[in-house]
Amino acid sequence: MKPIPPSGITQPEDRLQGHLLHFLSCLLFSLLLGSLLLLGLRFSLQYSLLVCGVISGCTVLLLTSSLFVSQRVRCFALLFLISCALQQGRNLLLAAGMSMVLLWNVSNTFQNLHRVAQSIVCNLENQVHLQDAPSSPLQTQVNMIRETCKRMKNFLEFVVVSFKVDIRVSGHAESEAAQEKLQEATQMLNATAEKAEAIYDTVSTIRNRVAPGIGVLILALMAILFLKMHRQNKRYLNSYITPEFVRYDEQQRAEGRPHVLPLTKKEAKRYPSIPSARPTLSDGMSVLIFFIPVVVHLLTWSALIGLDTLLYWIIQTVNRHMRQFRPIDVPLRVTLNGSPKTFSYSIEMFKKECLTQPTILLSQSLAPLSVILVVLAIMGLLSPKFLQAKILLIERFYGDSSADRVQHLHAKIVRKRSKKKLKALKSTLVSYATNKQKWLHTV
Questions:
Q1: Cα(380)–Cα(208) distance, integer angstroms
Q2: Distance from C-alpha of 142 to C-alpha of 121, rounded to nearest angstrom
């Protein structure tokens, strides 16, 4: 039989097993982040699969070695993941949702308005080009006069006296100025559309290539700032009763010094215990504060998407009614020497080829926005617990700073209790002195 090792001495097999488990956990964590990086490079930045694989593989190797060696890297990596589920991650998701609405729905609204303007210009061009449009109003009037002259000539051939009739009718309109105006309008529309398309491409490129990197950088900076503030400032978010606080209070009780546990009802509301699955009033307030920007952005998204949908419905309704318009028949009645002659001509009000065809992008925008809202709802409900997890995580990795914070909070509660006791003693003495003076005056 193997001899039983003394307590407190670790066997080489146990040490090797611990190192192996530690390495596997670091590797799994690195593979998770590497997979997310691979998906982001492939679908967001649209890099080739080889480049994405090489970058992700190098990242996994570097991150695994760093996590295995450095305690600070492990703490920072876990803080970074937790920060993705707090206000920083919320702000990034809201920014992503707003960029989707702006780049899809607002851009689609502009495109529909551009098509409406093109439709108006198209109808005006058909009205201006008189020589090439046989059904234009002016050309129709010219044909009407010609028909009238022809009928007059046929009528005069039947009378006794013969008249020589030679009538020539031609139509001409001073349309050069109008054509120049239409060309200017067309050029302005095309220039505006090109500028809008250039801005759209620029913003899309920034969103796809720059925004993810900036978002990751912001999350990393916020995690570093949180770690720095927690370690250097004893008052920063120092209002939670942690397991370290409980152990310190028990130690104070055992040494006969002032202790604070159990807390009073008012103190329990002000200093909640963590980890705790029961929600508190402060948790509800933090959830409410978390959802205020979400509601504001949701109303903004709904207004922009509703405006795009309303414009699409208006254009479709107008097009449907315009297609139902038939050419207008204009009857003409001419009486020559008591003999009525009737004929008519038609005017086409709208050109069907000039009617615009609007588009709508509800299916493309609602699906990702719904996913973002579901993720935000989950994050909002769990945000108080994520904050508690960050505090417990730093307490686990940095015990020296956590001990200082525990002592500071413990001394703060003791001072407040001492002040309350002094106030109670003072009020008791004042009431006693007042009663004694009344008794002396009575005697």
A1: 26
A2: 25
pLDDT (tens digit per residue) in 288-301:
888 888 999 999 99
pTM > 0.85: yes or no: no
- Asked if 368 and 104 touch (Cβ cutoff 8 Å), the reply is no
> What per-residue confidence (pLDDT) applies to 417?
81
> What mean pLDDT value characterizes the chain?
75
How would you write 332-392 as a 3-class SS string? EEEEECCEEEEEEEEECCCCHHHCCCCCCCHHHHHHHHHHHHHHHHHHHHHHHHHHHHHHH
Q: Retrieve residue 68's tokens.
A: 């295995």
Is the distance from CB of 112 to CB of 315 less than 8 angstroms?
yes
Answer for the pair 38, 50: CB distance below 8 angstroms, yes or no.
Answer: no
Select from 136, 138, 117, 128 the least CA-distant residue to 177: 128
**Which two three-digit tokens encode residue 163?**
């008249």
Can you tell me the distance from the alpha carbon of 141 to that of 344, in angstroms, rounded to the nearest whole number? Answer: 10
Q: Cα(249)–Cα(234) distance, rounded to whole angstroms?
A: 18
Residues 6+ apart with CB under 8 A from 79: 223, 226, 227, 390, 393, 394
For 259, the enclosing helix (H) or strand (E) is: none
The CA distance from 87 to 387, in Å, is 10
- 293-308 exposure pattern, b = at least 16 Cβ within 10 A, e = fewer: ebeebbeebeebbeeb
**365, 367, 205: which is closest to 301 by C-alpha?**
365
Pairing of strands 328-336, 339-347: antiparallel
pLDDT tens, residue by residue, 149-176: 666 566 555 444 444 444 444 444 455 6
pLDDT score of 167: 45
